[in-house]
Write a structure and sequence with these properties.
By secondary structure, this protein is α/β, with parallel strands linked by helices. The protein has two domains: about 190 residues, D-Maltodextrin-Binding Protein, domain 2 (3-Layer(aba) Sandwich); about 100 residues, 3-Layer(aba) Sandwich (D-Maltodextrin-Binding Protein, domain 2). Helices cover about 35% and strands about 20% of the residues. The protein has a seven-stranded mixed β-sheet, with helices on both faces. It has a five-stranded mixed β-sheet with strand order 7-6-8-5-9. Helix 1 packs parallel to helix 2 and helix 4 packs across helix 11.
């Protein structure tokens, strides 16, 4: 659920400044998100979880907001480009995938996790003899419930070229990242795939157990998630107000507890080297050759 709440906080924060958008009371602000942000959440629950934030936007701004869940980032980028969406919430690596094809999409703010790093890690027991991923045989990697998309992408790319019997996922659903790391520390399973910030938090909260763990492999840093709009859709003054509202959301009594609880540091202006981060990410994680073919969407 943590990954969903990060996206939810962003949607709620957009509600803080929705009144400065070009939308009017009878023109809801149209916000897109990809289905991949809701890993391990039943489709029937996704829109139910969005309702409180839709209500919040209406209370804060007098505007209604339509949240649309799309099959993939390419489809969402096209809908923003075609003026069918006003805003889109993308993983950083997804923005890297669509940026060349849709150069008129521009970032408003990026979502930064605690520690400011978006990174995946494969963690093993400190006594493990494994030196690299293909040393893990059979069903050996725990994937916690709600694992973040950049972690899944990292493991998929890392598995490329490995024997089908190597580094397979353990079919054990329902574990949180902390429970998965506990299982590795107890010697119950060989490895776990976690976000680097989850492992850092585990080291702080359970230093004794953390001493029985080590990182076998970790990804390069991913570019942080981003809120995009279409170039020219908002004037400079509106963009400034929107950025200010997002970037100050972590200071408000309403949103600060959520950000702390779900390990989100806050929103920031895109870093100066963001384009370079995207280019590097695209080299490491090219656009998938077989994106989801369905264009089914859901609205709330």
């Amino acid at each position: 659920m943590r990954h969903w709440f990060r996206a939810s906080v962003l949607l709620a924060a957009v509600g803080l400044v929705g009144a400065s958008s070009p939308a009017s009371a009878d023109e809801p602000l149209r916000i897109g998100m990809v289905q991949g942000m809701f890993r391990d959440i039943q489709p029937s629950m996704v829109m139910a979880l969005a309702r409180p934030f839709r209500s919040l936007m209406e209370r804060q701004t007098g505007l209604t907001g339509d949240v649309e869940i799309l099959a993939d980032a390419q489809l969402m980028a096209k809908k923003i480009n075609d003026q069918k969406l006003d805003l889109g919430v993308f993983h950083g690596f997804e923005y890297a995938w669509v940026k060349a094809k849709h150069p008129n999409l521009v970032p408003i703010s990026v979502a930064m996790p605690q520690g400011g790093i978006v990174q995946a890690a494969i963690v093993v027991h400190s006594d493990s003899q494994a030196k690299k991923l293909d040393d893990l045989e059979g069903e050996s990697i725990l994937i916690p419930r709600g694992s973040k998309a950049h972690c899944i992408l990292y493991l998929d790319v890392l598995r490329t070229g490995l024997p089908k019997t190597a580094a397979r996922s353990v079919p054990k659903a329902g574990l949180t990242p902390e429970e998965a790391l506990n299982a590795i520390a107890a010697g119950e399973y060989p490895a776990a795939l976690v976000d680097a910030s989850s492992f850092t938090a585990y080291q702080t909260l359970q230093p004794g157990a953390a001493k029985r763990l080590k990182i076998l492999s970790k990804s390069e840093k991913f570019p942080p998630g981003v809120l995009l709009t279409r170039k020219g859709a908002l004037n400079d003054g509106t963009l400034a107000k929107l950025r200010d509202g997002l970037n100050s959301a972590h200071k408000t009594a309403q949103y600060k507890p959520l950000m702390m609880m779900w390990n989100l540091q806050g929103f920031e202006n895109p870093p100066a080297d963001y384009d370079q981060q995207l280019e590097k990410c695209l080299q490491l994680y090219p656009v998938p050759s077989s994106p989801p073919s369905t264009e089914t969407t859901k609205k709330e």
